[in-house]
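A further point concerns the way the authors explain their paired sequence and structure data. Nothing conveys this as quickly as seeing an actual entry. An entry of this sort, consisting of the sequence and the corresponding backbone structure tokens, reads as follows:
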Amino acid sequence: MPIFNKIYSFKVLLFFMTVFLLGSCKSYYIPLTIENANPTKDELPKDIQSLTLMNRSMDSQFRNYREDSLQNFFYRNGYQLSKIVLDSTAADTTIRALAALIFESGRYDAVVPVERNMKRILPYEFLPDTLAPETVSQICSNYNTDALMVLERFSTKLMADNSKEKYIDQNLNAFYSFNASLDLKYDAFFRIYKPGKKTLIKEIELNDTISWESTDNNQTRMLNKIPSIKMAMIDAGIKVALDIDSKLSPTWTQEKRGYYLFKPGNDRGQQLMNDSNYEAAGKFWTEMAQSKDKKIRSKAEYNLALVKELNGDIDGAIEWGLKSFYSHYRYQTEEYLKKLQVRKETILKSK
């Protein structure tokens, strides 16, 4: 056989062997995408898994303003007005939106009672005294939650402005440009209580401004581009909820992981992982980790590290990862340990 044909045949054989080996490797290692929680600096202690949300910010000055009436009031003042408007819908939106957000985070359960507005005698701008321990315990007991979160103060100040500018084009024709802006400054103060002798565990104050601007050569069209006063206040309530949620709830990131099979096509561990039965998968792989075969033991230990991570135990994951690393070296294990170390450092920085 000519040397060229021999080389070509060898390359073809090598190619198919490589494909076979890669295919075999892939069949023994199952890629997995997981979602890891990145805790925030203000995340509540782990023993707080559920919250009752209540509102103690509304005094007798709060009103559920009609959207059209409130808008007309600003129009009658030429849309040039700076005024504190206390709207009960905006305050209540904060509570309801926050409950939905922290529940969706997967970190907390949230309860919003039907009777969620607590009595307030002080004017809106003052911060009331902390709740009595008996009150906190009673509310948490009534709604079977670990802690109580109260909106203690809430207000919105609206600053509307508009102007008209005249322009002359090259043909000496005059036309106007209408400009408007709406700035909304909100103030909110939350307290989080836990039953016990020392009930107050956290206070969070928020102050910020939301702004809208619009320009058009038609005044009506220009004003329609800006939200109504009522909707602007509701937006402020949602913004407060988003700000609080970003402080208390973890963020989630997708990361690539994987685990080893022992019987491709009929692997008990894979069946349990497909059912998200991590506890049973852990028991199965714990038995496999007793093997005298270093390679089998190492794979089982690697899989147990993954189970620990899925359960939020990063230290346990690192411990099993190291066992796998020393039982039988794999580059995959070394890379996984690096990822786990990064996760641990991220968690420590948030504390």
User: Anything to note?
Assistant: The chain has eleven helices and eight strands. The longest helix spans residues 3-28. Residues 193 and 200 are 5 Å apart (CA to CA).
